[in-house]
Specification:
- The chain is of the alpha+beta class.
- α8 crosses α10.
- The longest helix is centred in the first third of the chain and has 24 residues.
- It starts with a helix and ends in a 5-residue tail after the last helix.
- The relative contact order is 0.17.
Length: 439
């Protein structure tokens, strides 16, 4: 059935409901469920197509084109090129009212897929000047497909909606590519994604290992702030057999790593907020018997408290300078934030719990899950507009989520049985928010 015919049928059904129940009536849950089931084959097809054609951050040209074409076919107002490859769609209901935003991220990762899926990615892209394999190893293909499906369902309910829904399809969630000052969320905000119309609330989701069909989140700090840390150690090159004739930056790098680990374990109270400081890369030397004059280290810092984060960064910079000096070396230390703390508005979080349960079913929603040290730049939208970000369990059937391949793994995959739930959580979040009277 064509999109246009589906929309006409949905509008006819909703027209009957509007006449029978009055303009203020809620859209019944059964109506949403039926609409989601109708669009589900398309959602699965979109997800598989996008999975097979992944694109890195700020290079999501094909993905953005698929999204924009679909939104235009639904009759939405569409803006493209918002934050390089971002897409914003605006659905205006039949009557004025509140405004709400729904967001999905579009980018993939420089990962070689090892899922064995029939629609697995064999795509490549350019990352840091090199050709690399590219895969949707974080589930963003599912995020895009679910929000496209939600847009179709809500467009079919346009005559029943009082207010406006803004659909945000964001590039570069995985961080700004090298040489770019801003990631996708920050750049979209800078270029007006949250203006004209300005939403009063924003909602987003992410698929993660978890029991399929479950939804979980928490009020206040949910996902960590993420900083990239870069350290360059400068020494003096020498023969590997005569280390005393130079300044050994490889030995200094080993000491720096131990110092960072000790700082985190011995100066941060683990009972207050989770903190992770990891050095993940070390680049030094080109030959087994030459001690190089430079070593580059990079890592990530994950925190939940701004003051604690600032204090740890200051201690780390001081300590690393001292460690380098002890070896006769010098150090350059730099920190750049990739994502702020995902802070779920308390009142909105409490309001959302029964809405998500309407979508998922009784006992399937946990609004008090522990915080997680992974990060999300959805946090930047929350700095402008009150918002809630939640997770969908998407592990394979019969697999313990603790043993399932995690996001960013070559084996990561999304259980397609959760796709209709993601569509429903988006739709119910938008509908029930707009059905509230203006404050």
């Amino acid at each position: 059935m064509s999109v246009r015919r589906r929309l006409l049928l949905s509008a006819a059904v909703l027209g009957v409901l509007l006449t029978a129940q009055g303009a203020a009536a809620q859209v019944p849950a059964a109506t949403v469920e039926a609409a989601v089931q109708r669009v589900l084959p398309e959602v699965v097809a979109w997800r598989r197509d996008l999975h097979q054609h992944p694109e890195l951050g700020f290079a999501e040209t094909r993905t953005a084109g698929v999204v924009a074409d679909h939104l235009r076919a639904l009759g939405l107002e569409v803006r493209t090129g918002v934050g390089k490859t971002g897409v914003v769609g605006v659905l205006r209901g039949a009557r004025p009212g509140r405004t709400v935003a729904l967001r999905a991220d579009m980018d993939a990762l420089p990962v070689k897929e090892a899922t064995g899926l029939s629609f697995a990615s064999t795509a490549t892209g350019t990352y840091m000047g090199e050709t690399v394999p590219v895969a949707h190893a974080c589930g963003h293909d599912a995020h895009v497909a679910m929000l496209m499906g939600a847009a179709e369902v809500l467009a079919g309910m346009k005559d029943q909606i009082a207010g406006t829904v803004v659909f945000i399809f964001q590039p570069a969630e995985e961080g700004a590519p090298p040489g770019e000052p801003l990631g996708g969320a920050a750049l979209m905000i800078q270029e007006g994604a949250l203006k004209d119309p300005a939403p009063e609330a924003v909602f987003g989701l992410h698929v993660v290992p978890g029991v399929p069909g479950t939804v979980f989140y928490r009020p206040q700090g949910f996902m960590a702030a993420s900083d990239r840390v870069d350290i360059i150690l400068h020494g003096k090159q020498t023969h590997g057999a005569w280390p005393w004739k130079g300044v050994d930056v490889v030995a200094a790098a080993a000491s720096v790593i131990q110092t960072v680990n000790t700082l985190t374990a011995r100066t941060v109270d683990p009972t207050t907020t989770p903190t992770v400081f990891t050095i993940a890369t070390v680049d030094a030397g080109v030959r087994y018997n030459i001690i190089p004059d430079q070593a580059k280290l990079s890592g990530t810092l994950r925190t939940f408290d701004v003051a604690q984060r600032d204090a740890l960064v200051a201690r780390a910079e001081t300590a690393i300078d001292h460690v380098a000096a002890a070896h006769g070396a010098t150090a350059d230390f730099a920190v750049r934030q990739n994502a702020a703390l995902v802070y779920n508005d308390e009142a909105l979080s409490a309001w959302l719990a029964p809405v998500l349960e309407e979508a998922a079913g009784a006992g399937k929603v946990n609004p008090a899950t522990p915080p997680t040290t992974v990060a999300e730049d959805f946090s930047y939208f929350q700095r402008v507009v009150p918002g809630v970000f939640y997770h969908l369990g998407g592990s394979p059937d019969g697999v313990d989520p603790a043993m399932a391949a995690p996001n960013h793994s070559p084996e990561f995959d999304v259980n397609e049985k959760v796709l209709p739930l993601g569509v429903k959580t988006h739709v119910f979040s938008a509908l029930r928010f707009l059905e509230q009277p203006r404050s």
